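Justification of resources, computational component.

The compute hours requested in this renewal are based largely on the per-chain cost of generating structure records like the one below. Each record pairs the submitted sequence with a full structure-token output. That output is archived, and it is also reused by downstream analysis tasks.
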Amino acid sequence: MSTQSPEPNNLIAESLFHVKRIFHYPTPGHANSILQPSIRATYMDLAKAKKYALRALLDEGYQPEQFLELHMRHDTQAEEPTIWPYGDGVSVWAKIVDEGIVTVEIETTHNTLGRLLDHDGDGRVKEPLFFLIQTTIDYAKDWSVGSRQTAIEGVFRTRDEAAARALTVLLGNEEGEREIKKSDFASYEENAGQDDWPFDSNIMVHAIGENGLNILVAVVESAPAV
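The structure output for this chain reads:
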């Protein structure tokens, strides 16, 4: 019997499905490195992404008994499925200590990378990927910690590509986008490697809109495929 690993499949998928783990806390004092999303896996098949999302926390090393509450969204063929109150894109919702919440969500993006390697037919992308993550914080909804929304604004094969795009993503400099100037923001700061940069090193841009919304643009590397 052969013990050789399967040959990698070279596939082009129209969409990519990213399994995203996020911590949420109602109190201040938690580092952005903790609050920042972690991309646990990327799949070329939605059903397989949903299946993995249910065990993503276990793969990260967590055990069910560590959670005060744990709710998992299993696909059902029932005519009247149970109402899921935690959001359409959320596969796992768990309550943790310090009043925290951890969610595992699936976010879909268009595949701009072309062919991707799927080593063993499970639909999971095995190549390391780098994500442009935009976090928008609205302190009007919660003055102490803000209401956070995160979105993947780009997927890249190298950190340098992601970092370069981070410097223009808020400015609308790509073809077909309306140009927005830095002066259109109440505040706009870029990470140029300066010693006094007040944010984590992977955050490339911090901006404050005229509406008071805080925006962080970060480069996040995917978790290694197991």
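The chain has one domain: 9-78+86-221. DSSP finds four helices and twelve strands in the chain.
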